């Protein structure tokens, strides 16, 4: 397991680090630029604030002024900057990423955007550099599937959330088991595919970590191997227990899993990536 974890992390770090270096060099092209235009109706962000996600988690998070938000796998910082606008000057946003090149790009973007209520921390999502019970909302955009220890991710998310805190992410889920060959393919791992959980397993693991009000809303037909998902869960406590979740938003658009090559191989109406 340790060797696999190291191999996967190295592959993911290199894949996304290469994209960050391309963007920082002001020559993003389609692969490096990602899929921001498909999921976000925001045109005021600099071109270097790219996204490689499979949705827009900010659109479902219902962020409120003054809240503290943590973004798991914050990349170039797009979701952090959008969150910062919603939580306002009394709120705080923390982006967590393990890739030095992405962190450097995010810091450059933070200076361009002028987001004074955003900070970026180096770390892995299985061991968050965040205090216990200090966060109101956790968001993430197509990152948790990249981890080889999802249970650790969910336990850490539960630990840092305050009672009543919300876990609201966009991610890729499986609609069928992947083969051993697919699971061992590091390109598929870094492309957000072979590391994904079955949608039912995703919900079960969140509940096992202690979360309640768990909801995994997926799209795509039963013949597709992968689908995007909007995932909602709460840490027990607080006044919001049992409250219904927002059902999407103006900026949400379901697609087949984006990965790094979505712009090259997936059309908006396609249900599977090539």
Provide the fold topology.
Layout: H1 2-24, H2 29-33, H3 36-39, E1 68-72, H4 78-87, E2 92-97, H5 100-113, E3 118-122, E4 135-140, H6 150-160, E5 161-174, H7 180-184, H8 186-190, E6 197-198, H9 199-208, E7 212-218, E8 226-234, H10 262-265
Parallel strand pairs: 1-2, 1-4, 2-3, 4-5, 5-6
Antiparallel strand pairs: 5-8, 7-8
Helix pairs in contact: 1-5
Describe the structure.
This protein is of the alpha/beta class and 274 residues long. The chain has a single domain, classed as 3-Layer(aba) Sandwich (Rossmann fold). 33% of the residues lie in helices and 20% in strands. The protein contains 10 helices and 8 strands. Strands 1, 2, 3, 4, 5, 6, 7 and 8 form an 8-stranded mixed sheet that branches. Helix 1 packs parallel to helix 5. The protein is globular, with a radius of gyration of 17 Å.
């Amino acid at each position: 397991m340790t060797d696999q974890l190291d191999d996967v992390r190295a592959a993911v770090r290199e894949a996304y680090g290469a994209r960050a270096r391309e963007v920082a060099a002001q020559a993003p092209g389609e692969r490096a630029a990602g899929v921001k235009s498909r999921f976000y109706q925001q045109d005021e962000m600099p071109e270097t604030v790219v996204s490689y996600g499979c949705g827009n988690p900010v659109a479902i998070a219902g962020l409120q002024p003054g809240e503290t938000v943590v973004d798991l796998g914050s990349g170039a910082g797009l979701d952090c900057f959008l969150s910062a606008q919603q939580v306002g000057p009394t709120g705080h946003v923390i982006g967590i990423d393990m890739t030095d090149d992405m962190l450097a790009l995010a810091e450059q973007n933070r200076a361009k955007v002028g987001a004074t209520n955003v900070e970026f921390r180096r770390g892995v999502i299985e061991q968050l550099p965040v205090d216990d019970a200090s966060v109101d909302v956790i968001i993430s955009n197509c990152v948790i599937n990249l981890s080889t220890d999802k249970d650790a991710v969910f336990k850490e998310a539960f630990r840092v959330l305050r009672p009543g805190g919300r876990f609201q992410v966009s991610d890729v889920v499986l609609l069928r088991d992947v083969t051993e060959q697919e699971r061992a393919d590091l390109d598929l791992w870094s492309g957000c595919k072979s590391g994904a959980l079955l949608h039912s397993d995703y919900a079960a693991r969140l509940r096992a970590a202690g979360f309640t009000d768990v909801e995994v809303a997926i799209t795509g037909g039963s013949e597709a191997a992968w689908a995007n998902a909007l995932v909602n869960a709460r840490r027990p406590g607080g006044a919001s227990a049992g409250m219904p979740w927002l059902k999407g938003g103006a900026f949400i658009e379901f697609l087949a899993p984006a990965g790094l090559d979505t712009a090259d191989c997936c059309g908006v109406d396609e249900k599977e990536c090539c």
